[in-house]
Amino acid sequence: MVSPPPSTAELSKEELLDAPLRAFGFEIDLISAHKVSGRLQVTPNCCQPFNVLHGGVSALIAEGLASIGAYTAAGKRRVAGIQLGINHLKTAQVGDIVLVEAAPLSAGKTIQVWEVQFWKINSSNSENRVLIASSKVTIVCNIIENPKDAQRNVKYSKL
To answer: How far is 112 from 136, CA to CA, in rounded Å?
Structure first.
């Protein structure tokens, strides 16, 4: 008999992390409804052919952290990213350490907008950092788990 997966309320911060982020070696430092942060050491696995951090990896990290934060802020209810924009300002090369911090700009019950900033840091002094990318992610929150239940929650209005 197959045991059911653990409820999301019981997952550790490592288990909350998307499998693709784990595959790139991303590590979570902090999870709260007000901030999510973590770090990545840039390796060849997350670089484009010119040995700089791939923009798609940055976008993946941005949506992953914003989604974890929105999930936490929404009382651990299902969320989904619906829009992502990212600006890459400087490069990070193989060996660089990138600190990523996500914070809500607006944390509504249905829609949340999170800002995610990417900082290249000096391994000996994390205060010495350079902004390399900035992203805004829009998340829809409190998605109904079972679509069949949606009909029960529809509110009708008279015209």
So the answer is: 10
3-class secondary structure, 97:
strand
**Of 84, 91, 92, which is closest to residue 40 (Cα–Cα)?**
92
Active site residue 63: yes
Provide the pLDDT confidence category of residue 10 given band limits of 50, 70 and 90: low
In Å, how far from its chain's centre is CA 59? Answer: 9
Residue 115, domain CATH: 3.10.129.10
For residue 51 the two structure tokens come to 């040995």
- Out of 15, 27, 63, 127, the active site residue is 63
For the entire predicted model, the pTM comes to 0.82
Of 54, 71, 66, 73, give the one whose Cα is nearest residue 116.
Answer: 66
- Which pLDDT score is estimated for 19? 79
- More confident call, 2 vs 127: 127
Residues 116, 121, 123, 128, CA torsion sign: negative
Give the count of domains, the chain: 1
pLDDT in tens, 78-90: 899 999 999 999 9
Is residue 11 in some structural domain? no
